[in-house]
Design a protein that fits this description.
This protein has about 280 residues and is α+β, with helices and mostly antiparallel strands. It has a domain at about 45-180: Orthogonal Prism (Agglutinin, subunit A). It has 2 helices and 13 strands; from the N terminus they run H-E-E-E-E-E-E-E-E-E-E-E-E-E-H. The chain has helices at about 1-30, 260-284; strands at about 45, 50-55, 65-70, 75-85, 95-100, 110, 115, 125-130, 130-135, 140-145, 155-160, 165-170, 175-180. Strands 3, 4, 5, 6 and 7 form a 5-stranded antiparallel sheet that branches. Strands 1-11-12-13 form a 4-stranded antiparallel sheet, with no helix packed on it. The chain has a 4-stranded antiparallel sheet with strand order 2-8-9-10, with no helix packed on it. The longest helix is centred in the first third of the chain and has 30 residues, at about 1-30. The protein is elongated, with a radius of gyration of 46 Å. The chain starts with a helix and ends with a helix. Mean pLDDT is about 70; it is low at about 25-35, about 200-205 and about 225-260. InterPro entries: Bulb-type_lectin_dom_sf (IPR036426).
Length: about 280
């Protein structure tokens, strides 16, 4: 009897412990927050007003940062930062931009515009009310300005589909923007001649000569010969300076040259005036 009583007590304890564990497990399920629906592969859902997708600090131009991959993994989108190549012109800025790549070939499928950023600032890719926006520090450098919902609903999801296209949808799932509507690829941001860079030198800065054309499509005109028949004559002294009539640049008028003709001129003029005064005195 005593043995059976002990066995029954242990069995009751085991049942009590089992029921206690079950009740605790059930209560923990009730107290736990509801599970959030996870975004499907290839999709980013915006949960804040300005959601940072990727950022690159200055001095790390050669490290692309992936921020989304297509469902099959065939395509990936990166934030890239490139410095201006030496001799490429411009103002020496860095360039931050988005690039969608084929992951197997690393071929560029789509790119955002080459956005110049300061070499001292972090560039960041943000998902906000403008859609995708590249920031130079706290200043906007590029954005999908035409990404907007027909009903002015806020933009909620970013998708990278297996065709290599990026889409933005509003909170109702309506398509608001497609990257394929702005086709760009292989811009070579930061390289000579790339978008956002002034040419290293103006087209008319090259030396003119030979068969080169003049600025703005003008043609080089034949130059007249600078030799003249006078060059066949013996040249005067090197120290002399010649005017338009091949005479030395000296005042040849009789007023200060000291020539005798000037003296004769003054004598003749003075005599005539004196004679006129004498005649007038005799008459009157």
């Amino acid at each position: 009897m005593l043995l059976s009583h002990v066995l029954n007590s242990k069995q009751e304890e085991m049942e009590f412990l089992a029921s206690l564990i079950l009740s605790l497990s059930f209560s923990s399920l009730l107290l736990s927050p509801p599970a959030q629906a996870t975004a499907p592969s290839g999709t980013i859902k915006r949960t804040t007003k300005q959601q940072i997708l990727a950022s690159i600090p200055p001095g790390t131009q050669e490290n692309p940062v992936p921020f989304i991959t297509s469902p099959s993994g065939k395509y990936a989108a990166y934030l890239l930062r490139r410095e201006t190549a030496p001799g490429a012109g411009g103002f020496g800025s860095d360039f931050c931009y988005i690039q969608v790549q084929d992951t197997s070939t690393e071929q560029s499928m789509w790119e955002s515009e080459c956005a110049p950023v300061s070499t001292a600032n972090t560039c960041a890719l943000v998902f906000d009310d403008n859609g995708l926006e590249v920031f130079d520090g706290s200043n906007s450098a590029w954005a999908t300005d035409d990404a907007e919902s027909a009903d002015e609903n806020f933009l909620e999801t970013l998708e990278l589909v297996d065709e290599g296209d990026m889409w933005l949808r509003d909170k109702k799932g309506e398509l608001a923007w497609k990257a394929s509507e702005e086709p760009r690829a292989n811009q070579g941001c930061g390289l000579p001649g790339s978008p956002g860079l002034a040419p290293a030198r103006p087209p008319f800065a090259a030396p003119i000569g030979g068969d080169d054309n003049l600025p703005f499509g003008q043609q080089q005109l034949p130059q007249p010969s600078t030799l003249s028949t006078q060059q066949a004559k013996p040249m005067a002294g090197v120290s002399q300076t010649f005017g338009f009539d091949s005479n030395p640049l000296a005042d040849s008028t009789p007023y200060d040259s000291g020539c005798s003709r000037g003296v004769q001129y003054w004598l003749g003029t003075g005599g005539g005036v004196l004679l006129a005064h004498l005649v007038s005195g005799l008459v009157f």
